[in-house]
Amino acid sequence: MVPMLKFYFHDGVRTAAAESLPFLLECAKIKGPQYLAEMWQYMCPELLKAIETEPESEVLSEHMYAMAKCIEVLGMGCLSNEQINELIRILDKSLKEHFERAVKRQEQRKDEDYDEVVEEQLLDEDDEDVYVLSKVADITHALFAAYGQLFFPYFDIILPHITKLLGSNRPWPDHQWGLCIFDDVIEYGGPACDKYTDHFLQAMLAFLSDKQGEVRQAAAYGCGVLGQFAGPAFAQVCAQAIPRLVQVIQDADSRNEVNLNPTENAIAAVTKILKYNASAVNVDEVIPLWLSWLPVWEDTDEAPHVYGYLCDLIDNNHPLVLGPNNANLPRLMVIFSEAFKREAVEKDAEVTKRMLNIVRQLQANPEMFQACISQLSQDQQVALHHYLTT
């Protein structure tokens, strides 16, 4: 497969060769770490060379994605210092070209030959550029996941480009992917992300109200990981983020299909702040509001955080969640059952077991349980029964 990375007679062959590499590494794990390391030592230089020399942007994107997946498979230590520097050099070049091509397209729009046909071609080129940019983000994500703070010195080399992506004059896909990269800085850098605060914080808070859903989603996710991973130094920032997140969630169109993912990411962000970094927040003031936003179901990566926190509050007999004389129990049963109906949580997930344990505790009081069941739709009852019995 590796020699096929430079099979220039057919783009599809080069793409398929790159796509196969992370799967080959996964399969090779069974033969032990030495065999795996030798296989990667053969692959890596050729894949780096292919990324640097690939002339077609669509194929280049797949090469970059393959590199990201290979790093994810292998983890820390898979790249030598020289190889990381080489990869960063390639990313630096790719980002420079991203900005240069954007300028060139704007100049072409001023040309006397500019017309609808040219604009269509320019939009296609823009889409290709954005796709390559998303693969740059995939590679930095894989490197942060593997190396954490140890990746910071290398990241600093491309930091000016990533900061530039967040500029107010940049198009929204630049904002989206710039935020995604800084989200990883926070998630995998932890409290040490503080060194980059001036580069991302104000933009992240401002982009919570962006008109583009993908940008709002990336900004909301960033606020959530600030709450979860950035530590007490960011307590005031998290408190400042909550009113902005509430505004996103309570917008009149927040539950429209196109806005559902950004909205649920905002709900998850509030959840993480309440759970992990609430020292500057009046939690009891926010919880009734937070409870009114449930259930969530669209983003199955974020839903476990939301339902896990709800289980925490129920297990701790929080009065604002249970209500006077447990009056909120039927409503809580509706939330759980709708989550099951929508398959918001996987059946074998730890949070699902916690939710079902709470339901089974309710079953111990047949009268109360029946009162709760009577509030469910037929579909919700079927889903609840299915989760309880399988």
From TrEMBL:
InterPro entries: ARM-like, ARM-type_fold, Importin_beta, Importin_rep_6. One of its GO terms (cellular component) is cytoplasm. GO terms for biological process: protein import into nucleus. It is found in: Cytoplasm. SUPFAM superfamilies: ARM repeat. Pfam families: Importin_rep_6 (PF18829). Keywords: Cytoplasm, Protein transport, Repeat, Transport. This is TOG domain-containing protein.
